[in-house]
Amino acid sequence: MALIINEECINCDVCEPECPNGAISQGDDIYIINPDLCTECIGHHDLPQCMEVCPVDCIDKDAKHVEDKESLYQKYLKLIA
Predict the structure, then answer these.
(1) Section 6-17 average pLDDT
(2) Which co-factor is required (predicted)?
């Protein structure tokens, strides 16, 4: 499934440059993740890089965008095509 940034985000600007798909951007109040671009870093890294660098652990799985690893990998292949 895609990831989502919750309201605990402190706008530290650390996650955005770590996203290999460009899925993270500044929203009105906090950073947001575009679920159409988020592959949880599958195809690029073993672990989601935004979650790895977040100092406040405000990034969670997005229950509204459930995807298995194969679906995320297929999305990755489309994004790099």
Answers:
(1) 97
(2) [4Fe-4S] cluster
Tell the burial category of 62 from Cβ atoms under 10 Å away from its Cβ (0-12, 13-18, 19+).
middle
CA angle 35, 36, 42 (to 5 degrees): 80
DSSP-derived pairing of the beta strands 31-33 and 24-26? antiparallel
User: What is the radius of gyration, based on Cα positions, of the chain?
Assistant: 12
Q: Each residue of 43-69: pLDDT tens digit?
A: 999 999 999 999 999 999 999 999 999
Domain 3-80 architecture: 2-Layer Sandwich (3.30)
- Amino acid identity, residue 64? K
